[in-house]
Structure formats: C-alpha cells, structure tokens
Design goal:
Blueprint lengths: L3 E5 L5 E5 L2 E2 H8 L1 H6 E6 L2 E4 L3 E2 L3 E7 L3 H22 L4 E2 L10 E6 L6 H16 L5 E5 L1 H10 L3 H9 L6 E6 L2 E4 L13 E11 L8 E10 L2 H17 L1 H7 L3 E2 L9 E2 L1 H21 L2 E3 L4 E3 H7 L1 H5 L4 E2 L11 E3 L4 H9 L10 E5 L2 E3 L15 E11 L4 H19 L2 E8 L9 H18 L4 E3 L9 E7 L5 E10 L2 H4 L4 E2 L5 E2 L2 E10 H11 L13 E5 L5 H13 L4 E3 L6 H10 L4 E5 L1 H6 L1 E6 L4 E6 H13 L6
Parallel strand pairs: 1-7, 17-21, 24-25, 31-32, 31-33
Antiparallel strand pairs: 1-2, 3-6, 4-5, 4-7, 8-9, 9-14, 10-11, 11-12, 13-14, 15-16, 18-20, 19-20, 21-23, 22-23, 23-30, 24-26, 26-27, 27-30, 28-29, 33-34, 34-35
Helix pairs in contact: 3-4, 5-6, 13-14
Length: 646
C-alpha cells in the first residue's frame, strides 16, 4: 500500500496526502469554512462518511450542507437523533432499523407497547431539537461482529442482535455514537448534531419487523430534516403546491377521468377528458403531416410466436397480458400487444421496398396493454392500458443522422408548445440483459453519440440503461415547479430488422437491411396527460381546455341573448356553454373559475342591447366590455395558434 495517495478534486486539481487521510482532513486542508460545512464525501462517485480513511488514489467531491447529497446525510443523522429522543423519553424502548433511502425523509422502527399518538410526536420533536442544540459529535467506529453483539446485548437491544446476525460474513461492521446513543449503521453521518438545521416529524404507523407479517408489529415514526428552517419551509411549500397540482385530484375536480376496480389501473376518460386526450392526438397528427409520417392501424392481439421472434417473449414476458381464452379453440397462444414495434416490422415486410422509399415513417396510436404491478401504478402516470404517440422510422444507415436531427426539431417544437424548458438529454447504452452482438451495439451507440455531437447537444451517458434491443436517447423535461419527467425517447435498433429479415433494394441492386428508429415524443398519452395537467395546475391553454368559453347571463331575461352568443362561439368552432342557472353572478363566476374555464363572458341588458360581452380571463379581473365579434376573434386566434396565453 502506498504511503502517499493522489486525490483528484472536481476542478481537476490534485492533492497529495498520506494514506489514511479522511475526507474531513482534505476539507480542512482546503479551508476552515469548507471543513465546518462538510458532511460527507463522494469518493469515486460513491457517498462515504467524512471520517472514512482514503487508502488509495481517488476522485473526491466534498459534500456540504448545501449539496443534495448533504440533505440525505442530514436526514440520516436526524434518524439517529429521533431514536435517541425516543429512548430518552421512554427508557428501555428497543430500536430496530432506519430507512435506506433518505432522499426526502427518514424513519425508525421501535418496539413500543402502543401506537404513537400526535402528542407523542410533538414531545419527541421537542426532544430532538434539544439534542440538536447540544451540538454532539458523531463518532464512527469499526468493530468486530463479537464487539457489536456485546455492545448491543449490554444495552438490551434484542432486535439489533438479530440484525447483526443478518450482516454477511466479511462485511465491515460500523457503529455510530452521539452522546449516549449508539447504533449499528453504515452511515454516513454529519460531523455534529448542530448541522441538522431543522426537523419535522410527519406521521406514525405500525410496521412488521423485517416487513414480514409473521413477525411482531413495531411502531414506526417518519420525519424529515434539512440544513435550515428556510430550506424546510420551501420543501413544505413545494409539497403543498404539488398537492394542488396532483392530476388525480384535478381529474376528479375537472371531471376529466376516473378509475374503477372493474378495470384496475386503466383510466376511464369522461367526455371532458376525452376532448383533451383527442386534442393531444390531433396535435401529433397535424405534426405528422408536416414531418412526413404515415399513420397506420395494427391489431391488438398477436400470436405469441411474434413476440418470441422479436425477443419480447424472453425479455419482457412478465409485463405482458396473454389471451388464454384462445387456448380452448385453437392450438396457438396469443397475447395482447404491449408495444407496436414488432407489428410495424410485419407491416414493413408485407411489401417490397427500394432505397427510394426510405425513410419510411410509420406512426401508430394503437392501444397497448402492459402488466404493471399494483404497487407501482399511480394515477395516469403508470397505467396498464394506454396509447402512445408511437412511430418507427425505417431508413438507410446514411439517413440516421438527418432523421435524428429532424426528430430533435420535432421534439423541441412540441415541448416549446407546452412551455417545458431546461431539457436534459441522456444517452443510454447496452444493458446487461441485451440481445445481439457487442459490435452491433458499439456501432449503434457510436452513431447516436455522433448525432448528438453533430448537433452540439449537451448530454449525459447512462451506462447500461438502454433497451434490450438497442441504445437510446432520452429527453427529460422540467415542469413548472421544477420536477423532472422523462418523456421523449429515440431508440436505434439494428436487431429487429435482422430478426424479421427486413430488406430494401439499394441503388446498386443488392438487398440490404434497413435501420429501425423507435421514437415517441409525448410517450404514453395517458402519462403525458397527467404530467401536463400538473404542469399547468389544471389551467390548460385555450386550445386544450375541454370547455373554452362559458357565457354567464346576469338574469333570466338575458338568456335569449346568451344563446345568440353561444351560437356565435360554436359557429367559430369553439367549445362553449351557457350557465343559465338561477344563481347569483358571483356564484357563477366562482364555478367557472373552479372548472378552470379560460374565458367567461358576462352579459347583462346593456351588453344585449349593444351586442357586446364583458370579458373575464381565468384568474384575472374583468377585462372590460368588448364587441362580441372582437372577443370571438381573439379566442379563435389563441386556439388556432395553440397559444399558452389567453
């Protein structure tokens, strides 16, 4: 082992240090302020405790309270403070284990004689703040299995002794101690309890030991923690905003869709929701005409032999639905299609093709069904029945670059329409479970990388995250509150054309294999519907709104004029209604706002006499009285141009 090691920092600079130097030692050598804020280190990309000795040459990023990873370390440390607080308040309470994922919260399980009550959580939270104020240092200790068992036995921690038995032979066992509290833990943890700036306990529940129903019921407490009160307040404000935007809540409120146990994880789109859904489809259809796509319709049910030929049977079978009823009438097995690509290969092979026919762009809105486990389905963003703006491009190798450049234009045009910004691009390479020769994969990955480089697009490589048949480019958008959503994908496939023996006649008269590009821009229309609904907080742009205009007559005597206004709106192709209920105007306005109608047109006797309307824009005050023709033209223009503005 070398006595001196080289430590490469994020800026490329190299520090030489003695073997055994810790992350905190390196931080102290850079500056006192950095050392005070250090909570962990990223060593060769892996999060480690700041007390971890560095024994060989490494790359190192010092993690402070300001880094996202720092928040994880703070919450992990708050987890120990939680357990300490419970044991101080109720001596003799036994502890089990905490949480592995500390990205947003922490938890601890306790052997406790009853369920924790809200008043208990208040007491525990107060005790945690006292412990934090004590500014206790965390100490990391590597111990033998026997030493860990002795310490936990002396402390009466029966559950911990079972957990120690579960640690594999040869694995390093570490204990962490702060004040009187000690626990078996991998870490990492902050330097001192005072680096935990703010804590909040969220809820309590029962939890079986090791998650096994045959074991005893323990009591679990959830909480979260941050480097500062300001950061915690921002987190809860964001949570509240997310609750307001939850597409499942908005779907009910706006009468767009619902779910029912008769068709698990498969949405029912109501008339209003179907309008929005079909507008999304029509958007893509209009762009298909611009970008040279041919739309096709393919069957729902296929012989399983198709999926065996494509490789989906071996690589995707657990996510497929099988049509077992056919077994009784035919000596063949069938399945409902989870994707369109094999059927498009069948379609391509049904006729001969020349190089002059390529690129051939085939689009398909066919219904797809995938078996998603009940534990992962959620609203529209993970369903079992859906449709995609799915397309496959069959082209020559020389056409790959131009096609991908065209796809970039297409993708960015669509995302601009919805106001998605800050788009991140990821190049995903060969996964462990992959079909085809390594050389083909390497060539495909190189082609995609060169296409990205030629466009000058910044991208991140995701090793091993490609589809089983080829590498891909994924696009991640950020919505109005900064959340990330993976939407578009471009997948390069040299393998399915080979498996389906697809050919075209090249200019030299020889038969050659086409390249197949899989692409989706919205992706699952159901999922995009949910993402978009949350992005706009339900305030859909006029062209997408299921009800674009609502006419509000002030009194019953104005109803005939309101119907004239409605006729003018509908004649202009607008989706409009009249609220002729015998309710006060203020109530009607609030109802229109609650349903997020973009335009409310108020009409009284003066407006009826003058052929005008008082225009109210969604979430804004009255915009004044305008001639009806002018208002209709304004709304029609907003819809026609697919503007996000009213």
């Amino acid at each position: 082992m070398a006595s001196t090691i080289r430590i490469t920092l994020p800026d490329g600079s190299i520090k030489e240090a003695k073997a055994g130097t810790t992350v905190l030692d390196v931080a102290q050598s850079i500056g006192a302020r950095l050392a005070r804020e250090t909570v962990a280190g990223l060593v060769n990309g892996q999060l480690v405790d700041l007390r971890t000795p560095l024994e060989e040459d490494v790359t190192l990023k010092i993690i402070t309270t300001r880094d996202p990873e720092g928040g994880e370390v703070i919450r992990h440390s708050a987890e120990h403070v939680l357990a300490d607080a419970v044991k101080r308040l109720w001596p003799g309470t036994q502890i089990d284990a905490g949480r592995q994922d500390h990205s947003v919260k922490f938890q601890y399980d306790f052997r406790f004689p009853r369920a924790f009550r809200p008043e208990d959580l208040e007491k525990i939270e107060d005790e945690m703040r006292k412990i934090i104020a004590e500014d206790l240092p965390f100490r990391r200790m590597e111990v033998s299995r026997e030493e860990a068992q002795r310490i936990m036995a002396e402390r009466g921690e029966e559950l911990k002794l079972i957990r120690i038995d579960d640690i594999p032979e040869g694995e390093t066992i570490t204990l962490y101690e702060h004040g009187p509290f000690i626990d078996v833990c991998r870490g990492p943890h902050v330097q001192r309890t005072s680096q935990i700036g703010a804590v909040k306990l969220l809820e309590a529940s029962g939890a079986y030991f090791k998650g096994d129903e045959s074991n005893e019921m323990l009591q679990r407490i959830y909480g979260t923690a941050f480097a500062s009160k300001k950061e915690m307040n921002a987190y809860f404000a964001r949570l509240e905003e997310m609750r307001k935007r939850d597409h499942r809540k908005l779907g009910v409120q706006l009468d767009l869709f619902s779910f029912h146990p008769e068709a698990p994880a498969s949405p029912f789109f109501h008339p209003r929701g179907a309008i929005v859904y079909n507008e999304l489809v029509e958007l893509m259809r209009s762009k298909y005409r611009e970008y040279g796509y041919n739309e096709v319709i393919t069957p729902q049910i296929f012989d399983v032999a198709l999926w065996k030929r494509s490789g989906h049977y071996d690589n995707y079978r657990e996510n497929m639905f099988f049509a077992d009823a056919y077994d009784d009438v035919e000596d063949r097995k069938f399945s409902v299609k989870p994707m369109n690509c094999p059927s498009h290969c069948v379609l391509f092979a049904s006729s001969s093709h020349s190089y002059r026919d390529l690129p051939l762009r085939i689009a398909d809105f066919g219904r797809l069904h995938r078996y998603e486990r009940s534990g992962v389905v959620t609203g529209l963003t993970r369903v079992r029945s859906f449709s995609q703006d799915d397309a496959h491009i069959f082209c020559t190798p020389a056409q790959i670059g131009p096609e991908i450049r065209s796809l970039f234009d297409f993708i960015f045009e669509i995302y601009e329409l919805f106001g998605f910004s800050d788009i991140e691009i990821f190049l995903s390479t060969r996964p462990e479970k992959a079909m085809g020769d390594l050389a083909i994969w390497q060539h495909a990955e190189q082609v995609l990388a060169e296409s990205l480089d030629a466009r000058g697009a910044a991208y991140t490589v995701n090793p091993g995250d490609g589809a089983f048949y080829g590498p891909k480019i994924d696009f991640v958008v950020h919505d109005a509150i900064g959340r990330e959503w993976q939407l578009a994908t471009i997948q390069l496939d040299f393998l399915l054309p080979e498996r389906f023996e697809l050919t075209y006649v090249d200019s030299d008269g020889t038969e050659k294999r086409p390249v197949m590009i899989h692409r989706a821009i919205l992706g699952s229309i159901e999922r995009f519907f949910g993402v978009m609904l949350e992005h706009f907080a339900g305030d859909l742009p006029p062209w997408l709104a299921p009800e674009q205009v609502r006419v509000l007559p002030i009194v019953d005597a104005i109803n005939p004029y309101a119907e004239q206004v409605l006729s003018a709106l509908q004649a202009a192709g607008l989706r409009a209604t009249v609220d002729s209920r015998q309710e006060k105007l203020g109530y009607k306005i609030r109802e229109g706002e609650a349903m997020k109608v973009p335009y409310l047109l108020v009409a009284g006797q003066r407006e009826a006499d003058a052929g005008t309307v008082a225009l109210r824009l969604r979430h804004r005050r009255d915009e004044g009285v305008h001639p009806l023709e002018e208002v209709v033209a304004r709304i029609v223009n907003a819809v026609k141009t697919r503007s996000r503005e009213l």
